[in-house]
Amino acid sequence: MKNLVAGNWKMHLSPREVAGYAGRFAPETANLVGTVDLLVCPSFPALPAAVAAFRGTHVAVGAQNMHQELSGAYTGEVSGAALVDLGVGWVILGHSERRHVFGETDALVLAKLKRAHELGLKAIVCVGELLEERDRGETEAVLRRQFSESLGGAGPALVTKTTLAYEPVWAIGTGRTATPETAQEAHRFLRGLLEKALGAASEGVRILYGGSVKPDNAAELMAQADVNGVLVGGASLDPEGFAAIARAGA
Ligand code: PEP
User: Fold this and answer.
1) Distance from the CA of 235 to the center of ligand 1, in angstroms?
2) What average pLDDT values come out for the chain (250 residues) when binned by 10 residues?
3) CA-nearest residue, atom 8 of ligand 1
4) C-alpha separations of 61 from 47, 55, 193 in Å
5) Cα(34)–Cα(40) distance, rounded to whole angstroms?
6) CATH number of the CATH domain containing 195
7) How many domains does the chain have?
8) Ligand 1: which residue has its CA nearest to atom 7?
């Protein structure tokens, strides 16, 4: 299975900065075509510029969130149908900042996942424990709950088409990366949940690691048996650094 190297730009990089980024990142990674899948996820206003800048390249474009309804009186929200209209192919769902800063629940993530699939958007569903949950020895219980309630309810056919991201909350934006062994342990656990839910079809489901991935730790993380790529926040903002991470995944 090819690794997926995905960048979550969060609320960074304005529309006018996107073309410059693409002009540096696409050529840097052109020789990786066929060896690794690449994705960037800009903020909503920068999506049209990103779709235009990466059109015809090997780099896919995704959103960082979407609303579960197709349209309606939801001031300030963005419909998945509008993302499809723009030419966006992917969406991140249940990122820890959505869960813990904006109060998104497993049930909400599941509703968004079902809608994303219905619209033909490829989804990355994020799961991961808080530091206090890890310290209390609850990591597996949290992952099991998030897996079954934000993904499992979608049914095997949809789970097979979903990408999972293990993002321990204590490692996001903190500079404190999980060791490759800690990451692998959680990924192995998630792989077991996938196997139980999907049988042989689980082999095709990627599990990305996210949390302070940098050019100098990406290779050893992706060398782990059950790490099938990375979801990168801060380090994806620098096109050369993100290209180095892409090379590590190739
Ligand atoms: C993220 O936003 O998904 C993330 C993992 O952030 P960072 O790489 O900055 O820790």
Assistant:
1) 8
2) 97 98 97 97 98 97 98 98 98 97 97 98 98 96 97 91 97 90 98 95 96 97 98 98 98
3) 233
4) 8, 9, 28
5) 17
6) 3.20.20.70
7) 1
8) 233
